[in-house]
Amino acid sequence: MAVFTPLSQAQVAEFLQRFDVGTLTQIEGVPSGTENTTYFVTTDRQALVLTLFEQGEHDELPFFVDLLDYLADHRLPVPGPVHDCQGVALQSLAGKPALLFPRLPGKHPSSPNLAQCEALGETLGHMHAVSRHFDGHRPNPRDLHWLVAMHHRVLVYLSADDQALMSDEVDAYQAFFGDAPDLPQGALHGDLFRDNTLFDGERLGGIIDFYNGCTGDLLFDLAIVINDWAVHADGSLDAARHDAILRAYQARRPLTDAERAAWPMMLRMTALRYWLSRLLVVYVDPPAHDLTPHDPEQFRTILLSRLQNGALALPEIHPA
Ligand SMILES: Nc1ncnc2c1ncn2[C@@H]1O[C@H](COP(=O)(O)OP(=O)(O)O)[C@@H](O)[C@H]1O
Ligand SMILES: N[C@@H](CCOP(=O)(O)O)C(=O)O
C-alpha cells in the first residue's frame, strides 16, 4: 500500500478550491508508490495527481518544484507542479507538504522495445542539454562521498568475498575519480528506472518521481539508465537497447572525451550505488511499511557482470 495518509473526498474537494482546476469528481489512492502518499484526483476539467510527502527532507521540496518547473518550461515531458491562484505550488494538506501535478498518460514499460529505448535516450539527452543551465543546487545524495561513508555499514552482513568486492570497488572509484578530469555537470533525475517513466505505446508520456533529483555528474544519470533499461537477467548488457539509448542520447548531447573515459567506471559505480542502497534498506534502515524491499542481489549481479565483461563500445556520434 502507498496511502500512508488517508484523505476524504471532502478534504480533497476543499484543497482543490485553492487552484483553478475545476470541481472534484473522484479520488483514488494509488497502491504502487513506496515513499509518499499518492492519489489520482479527477475534476470536471482534468486528471491530476496529489502527492503528500511522508518522509525525506522537506526543506528540499522547493528544489524539486523549481527543477520540475524549469524542465516543464523547456517542454520536457515531466509533470510541472500545478500552482495555486496565488502562484504557489508547495502546499500543506493533512499536516503534510503537498503538491498537485497533471496526470501524465501511459504505463511503466517492463520490457522496453527499441523505439521506447530511443525515446528515453532522446528525452534524457534533451533534459541534460537544458539542465546544464539550471541554476538550482542540491548535491547528489548518492554520490561517491555517500558510497565511501555508507558502505562500512553493510559490510558486516556480507560474505568475506562480497566484503572484499565492495571495499575494493569503492577504493577503485576513489582512485579513478580522484584523478579524473571534471565531468559535465547539471541537474539529474537520479533514479531513472523504467518504473519512473510512463509510455503511451512508443511515446514517452512522462518522467516522474524526481525526488532523487540533484545536481552533479550528468553521466551518473545515464549510467543508472543503462544498468536498468539495457540489461539481461544475468546482469549482462543488451547491445541493441544499449545502442538505441546511447545513440539517441548523443544526438542531443554528445559525450565528452572525459565522459567516455569514465564510462566503464561509472557503470560499475552506479551498480554498486543500488547494491548498497538496497542492502541498507534490507539490513540497516528498513521502512516502517510492509512493502517488499527491492532485491540487492540484482545489482551485485550487474556489478559483477560489468567487472567481468567491461562496458560495450559506445556507439558513434550522430549530432542532430
Ligand atoms: N504525474 C503523474 N502522472 C501519472 N501517474 C503518476 C504521476 N505521478 C505518480 N504517478 C503514479 O503514482 C505512482 C507512485 O508515484 P511515485 O511518485 O513514484 O511515488 P513514490 O515516491 O511513493 O514511489 C507511480 O508509480 C505512478 O504510477
Ligand atoms: N529505484 C531504487 C529505489 C530508490 O533509491 P534510494 O537510494 O532512494 O533508496 C531501487 O530500485 O532500488
TrEMBL record:
Gene Ontology biological process: threonine biosynthetic process
GO molecular function: ATP binding; homoserine kinase activity
Database matches in SUPFAM superfamilies: Protein kinase-like (PK-like) (SSF56112)
Pathway named in the protein's UniProt entry: Amino-acid biosynthesis; L-threonine biosynthesis; L-threonine from L-aspartate: step 4/5
InterPro entries registered for this protein in UniProt: Aminoglycoside_PTrfase, Homoserine_kinase_II, Kinase-like_dom_sf, Pseudomonas-type_ThrB
Coiled-coil region: none
A Pfam family reported for this protein in Swiss-Prot or TrEMBL: APH
Annotated EC: 2.7.1.39
Aminoglycoside phosphotransferase domain span: 27-255
Key word NADP present: no
Enzyme category, top tier: transferase
Organism domain of life: Bacteria
Catalytic reaction list: L-homoserine + ATP = O-phospho-L-homoserine + ADP + H(+)
Keyword annotations: Amino-acid biosynthesis, ATP-binding, Kinase, Nucleotide-binding, Threonine biosynthesis, Transferase
HAMAP family: Homoser_kinase_2
Protein family membership: Belongs to the pseudomonas-type ThrB family.
Protein name per UniProt: Homoserine kinase
Taxonomic lineage: Bacteria, Pseudomonadati, Pseudomonadota, Gammaproteobacteria, Oceanospirillales
